[in-house]
Design goal:
The complex is a heterodimer of chains A (about 120) and B (about 290). Chain A has about 120 residues and is α/β, with parallel strands linked by helices. Helix content of chain A is about 25%, strand content about 20%. Chain B has eleven helices and eleven strands. Chain B has two domains: about 220 residues, P-loop containing nucleotide triphosphate hydrolases (Rossmann fold), CATH 3.40.50; about 45 residues, Alpha-Beta Plaits, CATH 3.30.70. In chain B, the strands form two sheets. A nine-stranded mixed β-sheet of chain B has the order 3-6-7-2-8-1-9-10-11, with helices on both faces. In chain B, strands 4-5 form a two-stranded antiparallel ribbon. Chain B is elongated and about 70 Å long. Classes of the chains: A alpha/beta (about 120), B alpha/beta (about 290). Chains A and B meet through helix 1 and helix 2 of A and strand 4 of B.
Amino acid sequence: MKIIITAVSPTIDAAFDPRFGRCAYFVVVDSETMQWEAFPNSAVDAPGGAGTQAAQFAVEKQVSAVVSGNFGPNASSALNVAEIAMYVNKNQGNIRDVIENFKAGNLTNINVPTVKGSHSPRGQA
Amino acid sequence: MRITVASGKGGTGKTTIATSFAVYLASTTPAFPPLFLDCDVEAPNAHLYLQPRFTQEQNISIPIPDVNSESCTACGKCVQVCEYNALALLGKTVHVFPQLCHGCGSCVATCPVGALSETPNTIGILEAGLARLQIDFARGVLNIGEPMAVPVIRQLKKWIQPHADQTVIVDASPGTSCPVVEALRGSDFFLLVTEPTPFGLHDLKLAAQLSRELNIPAGVIINRDGIGDADVDNFCNNERLPILMRVPFDRTIAEGTARGQTLIDIYPEYNSQFQQLLDDISRNEKRT
């Protein structure tokens, strides 16, 4: 199954990045063949809408699921519309560990946001 | 003359200073009361001190795109042109995220097949009326849950124009981001209210930088003077930022402001301090 995992650096041995819209890199990986490719998150510094951009990226890569630590309301609604499954990883470890946990069914499948929007009304808009 | 009161840090006493200044102006020159604009649209509270009676109101909306799925070809051009990531092409449909939309209209202009139209989305309200001492008062109120303050502030400033030579006091929101920049735009002087603490100093530095970038002369008021340390004083001296007034950390002032009184009401001696402030600002304001 083709999935996206959020990572702090562009390799399959990278540490897991718990942010979805604001992660540093997306590792796109086929969980059966372990073939992977890493992409920088172009919206990491976007003033707003990073979650929708990340969801748009998942749609373009035609993945079936995304794994991250948290999903905001815009990302979650976009992923739901696109019928891409969201999995929450709360474990430490690198991307390979996350894939193992995903395959073993240890990750929680969700369809609602895990955090409130970060479009901070009082902070940097 | 247009004076904007801001601070960086929240809770330093912006509204206390802004409303006291307005009361001073209105009581010393009753024939020419100032215009007061409460631009802290996420949490406006100057009305507690100036007691306006609102007689005019206007809804504020921004145009949000609507997608006609019959004619949309899912080309994705609207998604690419959107600076705010408010659109996403999910499968064969374009999905709109209204809370991210700034209402710029680029998507509608870009759509090659005319599949996008605009619907107004109400995000807040403007209110105006006379306050105590005949002060012209107006404020914007952003609806709860709406993230975008800037369009409300921009419309407020357009909606209520001062008459000739009327002094305008603008109460800005905390921080130094877009809403403060919008409130500050067009001002002749930037009055920075801070407190002598590391938190006050941290945000004062950002606000001072904003005044330099916008090229608007600034001066500092130190509130709760007597607490904290001397770092704010040292910073102002090094940056040649004039310290225009000091308000001591004083229980009587705290009790008075909690009852909705301005500094002028609590200690009439502040009339001479605000007279001095006005003179100092007039000397330093931006010459146009």
